[in-house]
């Protein structure tokens, strides 16, 4: 049962946002990426939980998926920016669960580096973590055995 590690979709640029960064929303491309996540997630697992950093851009990135599945988005502080160590512990605790989690680029990098170093997970020759992308992580009992990168998908909204 793979865990889906999602980097939040494209948000409005920090330099153009004058409010609290936690409240910075998705851009129009980010909304399309969030819709694309639905089809991506359905290919891999029957997701039974959707966890997210409480930042608006993360919640918005997985909200369409959660709504399609009849689930709520569980906001988890361990997935916030700068919480890499806590996020790694959470990801390990969720190994083998049918869960999608959405977080930030700095956290994604730390999770992937940890899995490569400690679990010897092969991330391929050029690991990526584009906004709106997904890493499909296979594992159980607190460790992981493989990872597959899926680039973001844009779906035109009506």
Structure report:
This protein has a 6-stranded mixed beta sheet, sandwiched between helices. With 158 residues, it is of the alpha/beta class. The mean pLDDT is 92. It is globular and about 40 Å long. The protein contains 4 helices and 6 strands; from the N terminus they run E-H-E-H-E-H-E-H-E-E. The chain has one domain: Rossmann fold. Strand 2 (49-52), helix 2 (56-69) and strand 3 form a beta-alpha-beta unit.
Mean pLDDT: 92
- The tally of beta strands, per DSSP, is 6
CATH class: Alpha Beta
- The rounded distance between the terminal residues' Cα atoms is 33 Å
Q: What do we call the CATH homologous superfamily?
A: Phosphoglycerate mutase-like
Question: Main beta sheet, described?
Answer: 6 strands, mixed
Low-confidence stretches at least 5 residues in length (pLDDT < 50)? none
Annotation keywords:
158 residues; Rossmann fold; alpha/beta
Summed up, what is this model?
This protein has 158 residues and is α/β, with parallel strands linked by helices. It has a single domain (3-150), classed as Phosphoglycerate mutase-like (Rossmann fold, 3-Layer(aba) Sandwich), CATH 3.40.50.1240.
Strand and helix layout:
Blueprint: E1 3-7, H1 28-42, E2 49-52, H2 56-69, E3 73-75, H3 84-93, E4 99-103, H4 105-119, E5 134-140, E6 143-150
Parallel strand pairs: 1-4, 2-3, 2-4
Antiparallel strand pairs: 1-5, 5-6
């Amino acid at each position: 049962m793979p865990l889906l590690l999602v980097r939040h979709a494209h948000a409005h640029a920090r330099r153009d946002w004058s409010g609290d960064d936690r409240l910075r929303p998705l851009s129009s491309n980010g909304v399309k990426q969030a819709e694309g996540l639905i089809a991506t997630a359905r290919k891999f697992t029957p997701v039974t939980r959707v966890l997210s950093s409480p930042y608006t851009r993360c919640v918005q990135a997985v909200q369409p998926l959660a709504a399609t599945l009849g689930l709520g988005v569980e906001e988890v502080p361990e997935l916030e920016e700068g919480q890499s160590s806590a996020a790694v512990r959470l990801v390990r605790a969720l190994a083998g669960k049918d869960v999608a989690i959405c977080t930030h680029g700095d956290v994604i990098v730390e999770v992937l580096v940890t899995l490569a170093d400690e679990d010897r997970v092969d991330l391929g020759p050029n690991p990526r973590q584009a906004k709106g992308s997904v890493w499909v992580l296979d594992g159980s009992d607190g460790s992981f055995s493989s990872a597959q990168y899926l680039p973001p998908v844009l779906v035109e909204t009506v």
